[in-house]
Design brief:
Radius of gyration: 21 Å
Strand content: 15-25%
Structural class: alpha+beta
Oligomer: single chain
Helix content: 10-25%
CATH topology of the largest domain: Glucose Permease (Domain IIA)
CATH architecture of the largest domain: Distorted Sandwich
């Protein structure tokens, strides 16, 4: 879809807290200050192109050569793997990884992999038609977007491209990650859609104490457990008329989400459709499985198999998945379940458990 003016676009919208009830993601984290797994989306350099295979998914030939040029441009600028994925994601959304010599009705002067406009912001015609140079200019503009690596990927791209539909690029995240992983060879073997580095997990983070803490310091509860009219745009049919968890939101900024008690991480999800990014964990006493949803893309700090103490940072409050505003949604399931989901597995009201554990909100 066509960009508006081809320059960085305007500010993030915040508000309307919407949850889609279906699946649960639970996370167990360590105590405050514990060292968490590093993310390639925040630190480290991009992966080098090992080779260009004949085909990756629906892409082949020149398309993959163009993707390799995008990856090289990001790496040459010292940007991380997450930027490489963003660049490929943007180019898939704009040109299906082809250098095209035309625009559309909304931008007839747009050209190249990124459909950059002839407005002086993107260099000459030959610059816009050159995969490496046009990608370099894309990444230079991306680097000027404050906190780009903490934004929803489609939003980060939109800040550069100015597309008429901010979420346009979301559908291309998974194929973009697959291309970067395939072209990166062994160095990229452990990458996921967020750009997270490979890690075996199994680390014990923090001192386990059995204590309970608030999951999002400074946040207010924005929606409680139980029957409610489904917010506009919620998927899930009749299930959406019952809120199977509890929502928290931090006014004015994205807060840090922490483990509410000692837990073992059993499931990690990165940009998982309706549910966004999040984690699933089981309390170390086996009494509860706790799901965290809609966290910021690329912000997860733990791996499956980690055991973490109450208060350990898990990631950042976000707006990934089927939501209309930034918030944390949590669901509590009785028992130790590997991957619970609504309505197959029974949920319980988190508020009553928090109250019993002395956590007020």
């Amino acid at each position: 879809m066509r960009k508006g003016n081809g320059t960085a676009a305007a500010a993030l919208a915040v508000a309307a807290f919407l949850f889609t009830p279906v699946l649960i993601v639970v996370l167990f984290l360590g105590a405050g200050g514990a060292k968490a797994a590093e993310s390639c989306g925040v630190a480290g350099s991009g992966v080098s192109v090992a080779s260009v295979p004949a085909q990756v998914g629906t892409f082949s030939g020149k398309q993959l050569e163009n993707a390799a040029a995008i990856m090289k441009a990001a790496k040459d600028l010292g940007l991380p793997a997450a930027a490489q994925i963003l660049g490929v994601q943007a180019a898939i959304g704009e040109s299906t990884l082809n250098v095209i010599d035309h625009g559309d009705a909304a931008g007839p002067d747009s050209r190249g992999l990124f459909q950059q406009r002839n407005n002086g912001a993107w260099g000459s015609y030959s610059d816009r038609m050159d995969p490496y140079i046009s990608a370099t200019n894309f990444f230079k503009t991306l680097s000027n977007v404050a906190g780009w690596d903490q934004l929803e990927p489609s939003t980060a791209i939109h800040r550069v491209q100015g597309n008429a539909v901010e979420s346009h690029y979301a559908q291309f995240r998974t194929p973009a990650a697959g291309v970067v992983k395939a072209l990166g060879g062994e160095a990229a073997a452990g990458l996921d859609a967020s750009g997270a580095c490979p890690s075996a997990g199994g680390t014990v983070l923090g001192e386990l104490s059995g204590e309970w803490v608030h999951p999002l310091a400074g946040a207010s509860m924005t929606s409680g457990y139980g029957p409610r009219a489904a917010p506009a745009g919620t998927v899930g049919g009749v299930l959406a008329n019952f809120h199977y968890g509890i929502d928290f939101a931090t006014p004015g900024h994205a807060g840090t989400i922490v483990a509410v008690t000692d837990m073992k991480i059993v499931k990690i999800r990165h940009l998982d459709g309706t549910f966004g990014s999040g984690v699933t964990g089981q309390t170390t006493n086996g009494e509860l499985t706790i799901g965290y949803y809609h966290m910021e893309a690329g912000s997860l700090k733990v791996k499956e198999g980690d055991v973490v103490a109450a208060g350990t940072p898990l990631g950042t409050e976000g707006a990934t998945g089927n939501v209309t505003g930034r918030h944390l949604h949590m669901e509590f399931f009785p028992g130790a379940l590997p991957n619970p989901m609504v309505p197959v597995n029974q949920t319980t009201d988190p508020a009553s458990i928090f109250k019993a554990q002395g956590v007020n909100f």
